Amino acid sequence: MRDVYDVIWAPVITEKATRAQDEKNVYTFICDPRANKAQIHEAVEAAWDVVVEEVRTARYVGKARRSLMGRFNRTRKVGRRPSFKKAMVRLAEGDHIEFYELG
Questions:
Q1: Which of 43, 77, 81, 85 is an S-S bond match for 7, by CB 3.0 to 4.6 Å?
Q2: Residue 4 CA from chain centroid, whole number
Q3: Cα 40 to Cα 50: distance, rounded to the nearest angstrom
Q4: What value does the CA radius of gyration of the chain take, rounded to a whole number of Å?
């Protein structure tokens, strides 16, 4: 297995993800697009010492982005947003991950 933090890049902290954590015990992460479900499963269990029941993944393709450099500037710069993979991980009953530890 690769390093844990090569597979899992960052947690997703949004209103929808926080609601899923509270109600369904589902945690959301941004992962390496080349990682599969088994690697994500092992990485989460190794990093936080929890039991993973289910892993769901979704791929997001980077979209084209236009930016105008000034109001009357005729030159447009075209770029892309990065592609990424999002993983929704359901933990066993009683397990939780503390992203922000207080104290």
A1: 43
A2: 13
A3: 13
A4: 17
> Which residues constitute the domain of residue 81?
4-91
If DSSP codes are grouped into helix, strand and coil, which group holds residue 92?
A: coil
As for how many domains the chain has, the answer is 1
CATH number for the domain including 65?
3.30.70.330
pLDDT at 80: 86
**In order along the chain (103 residues), what is the average pLDDT of each group of 10 residues?**
87 95 96 95 95 97 75 68 95 91 59
The set of residues, in sequence order, having a beta carbon less than 8 Å from that of 60 and lying 6+ positions away, is 83, 84, 85, 86
Q: Is residue 96 assigned to a domain?
A: no
Counting Cα atoms < 13 Å in the Cβ hemisphere of 65 gives 10
pTM of the complete model: 0.83
Cα separation, 82 vs 30, in Å, equals 12
